[in-house]
Amino acid sequence: MEYPEPTVGAVIFNPDGKVLLCKSHKWNDQYIIPGGHIELGETMEEALKREVLEETGLEIYDIELVSLTETVYDRSFHERKHFIFIDYTCRTDSTHVVLNDEAEEYEWVDLKDIDQYDLGGFVKKLLKEIRHKPSAYAKEVLYGYL
Fold first, then answer.
1. Beta-sheet pairing, 5-13 with 82-91
2. Which residues does 10 contact at the CB level (< 8 Å), separation at least 6?
3. Class of residue 109 by CB neighbours under 10 A (exposed 0-12, middle 13-18, buried 19+)
4. What is residue 133's predicted lDDT score, i.e. its pLDDT?
5. Residue 132: how many CB atoms within 10 A of its CB?
6. Which of 35, 40, 95, 104 has the greatest number of CB atoms lying within 10 Å of its CB?
7. Longest Cα pair distance anywhere in the chain, in angstroms?
8. How many CB atoms are closer than 10 A to CB 15?
């Protein structure tokens, strides 16, 4: 039997306040944020740190939950999947990215420039919401269905 797959994603801010976008063949060559599946026995934050390190070589901190979203059979993904996205903002002290085989290229992008990129559907909505957040001190978890 198949079940929805819980995954974590990271909106990573570098020391210059730019966000990491990774172009992935798994997502129709669109730009997405790093992340992946939560393994059995692993907390969501442990999964986030592990996935980011595996996919980008970056260590992250100041992790904050910002979004719960799901997609059911998104045509942008290379397989037929039902994902539950648990997304966080976080910080890194580095801009040096080492990609694994899940992405082909990356960009550090100012949030005001995200409209210039071909973003995966869930990433576009998430980054636009973060960009329009009224304050760095606001605490709000976004919930949505794509």
1. parallel
2. 20, 33, 34, 35, 48, 51, 52, 60, 87, 88, 89, 90
3. middle
4. 72
5. 8
6. 35
7. 45
8. 10
Query: 100 and 55 in contact (C-beta within 8 Å)?
Result: yes
Which element (helix H / strand E) includes 131? Answer: helix 121-131
Alpha-carbon gap, residue 68 to 5, rounded angstroms: 13
Contacting residues for 52 by C-beta, under 8 A, at least 6 apart: 10, 12, 34, 35, 58, 59, 60, 90
Q: What's the token pair of residue 129? A: 């919401």
> What pLDDT score was predicted for residue 145?
47
Per-residue confidence band for 135, with pLDDT thresholds at 50, 70 and 90: very low
Give backbone dihedrals phi and psi of 116, rounded to 5 degrees, phi first. Answer: -85, 0
For the residues 111-118, what does the mean pLDDT come to? 94
- Nearest-CA neighbor of 95 among 57, 54, 61? 57
pLDDT digits (tens, 9 = 90+) for 10-51: 999 999 999 999 998 876 889 999 999 999 999 999 999 999
